[in-house]
Amino acid sequence: MSHDDFPTDHPAVVTCGLPYANGDLHIGHLRTYVGGDVYARALERLGQETAFVSGSDMHGTPVAVNAEQAGVSPEDFALDWHERYAETFPKFNVDFDNYGHTHDETNTETTQELVRDLDAAGHLYEKEIMVAYDPVDDQFLPDRYVEGTCPYCGAHARGDECDEGCQRHLEPGEVEDPVSTISGNPAEYRERTHKFFEVSAFSEYLSGFLDRLEGTSNARNQPREWIEQGLQDWCITRDMDWGIDMPGGEATESPREGGEAADSQDLVLYVWVDAPIEYVSSTKQYTDRVGADAFDWEAAWKEGADPDHPEGGEIVHVIGRDIIQHHTIFWPAMLEATGHAEPRAVMASGFVTLGGKGFSTSRDRAVWADEYLEEGFHPDPLRYYLATNGGFQQDVDFSWEKFRDRVNTELVGTVGNFLYRSLLFAHRNYEDAPVADATSEEVADRIGEAVADVEAAVNDYSVRALGDAVTDLARFGNEYIQHNEPWKLVDDEPEAAARVIHDCVAIAKAIAVLFEPIAPEKCERLWDQLGEDGSVHEVTVAAASEEPEGDLSEPTELFEKVEDDRVEELNAKLESRVAEAEADEEDDEASDDADGSSDDQDDEDDTEDTDMTDIDPISDDRISFEQFQDLDVRVGRIEEAAEIEGADDLLKLRVDLGVETRTIVAGLKGLHAVEELPGTKVVVLANMEKADLFGVESNGMVLAAGEQADLLTTHEDAEPGTKVL
């Protein structure tokens, strides 16, 4: 890993968090896979040697439970979903170089080898812990067979995670008031001997790792609080049959009377041990297929494997924010302990809501991946929507109305309009591409700016900025052709007309190259219309500045409008499905009430989905325009940031408001790296009443969104002091 700007001489691996082989994919799931694919393609456009890998997460309790309910083996159940995912991703142009799964031979061997290395290095130990046990059904209850109360925040929690509250990872035995999710019986805790990984020994390393980590700020800031609170060692084994066996075979006697020994052969590894190791295994499989000369997995993943780059390759993880802890605490500690390269970056996405409300799989309130395609929509507009609708770490809302507006305004009205009008004019007025000595300096410079914007977006880990670079270039193209009006020049000034259209074709070629990561299929079609040689998927950004040389074919419009009546039809279908599912759920609840039973497992999907999309409803209390005008909201720029002695979560900021620089106290500690705040544009409520906080007078309020304090900022270059109207 270099931390040099991309492209580097080191091999890069881009991974996506593994989809859990337990149910259908919806567009909320697709956000990280589309984001990962866009980023991997963009790296390749820069000339970076890149492998894009992932795989299905086959193990864990929910798979075992649902397989039992379906009357099939966990392996058959998970493989069925794995095969569906492997078929679905290409339909959305998500093009993994290798897509494996955690139960295959490669990952089993790699996982057990890495665990043996952890043990040999002295980082594993045995410990007696309290494990939930169902005395009625006479069985131990690992992970999600248990639910209860989070000991840290008091919210409802699963056995391995506080999914509805603080999202903290929970060790076996931590959940209070445990209940079996299988039977509904109250559970009790009994002692069992399990294997632990001493994560606490890596606190200092992990603090330094977070200082070096690139990607989204939430991936750096969220784990700092866990380190400051003190890391707990990690139980890496579970009492169940489905999973990768804990390597070894000697039975361990319980040192305490009344405890129950656990033979290592009776234990499987916790799913979060073998899941990230699939990243390595999938890269291995890619090398096995293409050869080490094409891509060397060891040079990417192992420190010292490549003498020219002993620190390893450029590892970029693209994940959902609910699994930040696993990728920034447990996983890098495992890599460090076993001589593997650490991740260079973690890109943690926000969640996707649906029309302002949470996805609910049990109520069928979702836009399913297959459903989107069955409605006749092309995958590339959805890729554009998911990639560019907000910053990657922000929550975004999908609605058919918003989808229509983005498609019609930006893809059809801006990008598509420029491409079609300019290429159609060229095709009708010239046999081949219009001949000019070269692209004009103005246009060549503007294309160069777009290339620089794309390069900056890749190094800033911003898939949104990748899309913005292209739509801005297309917007320039529309203004350029409208200003020069070649249709007025073609008869009287044919050379001038040819120059203008040559410039427009050059812009179209640049769009094909630079937009390929987001809209690969549409750009392949555009490349063919331009008559360019080779594949648009294999060129680098340098091709965006090369003169167009192809013979133009008659163009067709790349993007189709989404009509209002289609939106009404789609909304009606969704509402009908939700109403039917809710009616079925009410019938099930009535049946449960009648026989005194409950189905906790059925509730699990809703629990996870509502956690993913927990957004407060919009207030019905309105304010007048006059009341809004009373708010003095200004653009500011943070000049200095410092911690306040004795304050757990407050920082002292010096903020330039144009006409003056003020001291403002903000609750950003632990959520933003203090050293990275200076230079950040923020939005400030300037006429907030002054307040004395920990001996510091705060003169204003910095505005931020959500529990992670996502700072409000400006899209363009508004100067400090500019009023927000």
UniProtKB/TrEMBL annotation:
Residues at which Zn(2+) binds: C150, C153, C162, C166
Record region (Disordered): 575-621
CDD domains: Anticodon_Ia_Met (cd07957), MetRS_core (cd00814), tRNA_bind_EcMetRS_like (cd02800)
EC nos: 6.1.1.10
Record localization: Cytoplasm
Domain TRNA-binding: 627-725
HAMAP family to which the protein is assigned, alphabetical: Met_tRNA_synth_type1
Protein name per its UniProtKB record: Methionine--tRNA ligase
Organism listed in the record: Halorubrum halodurans
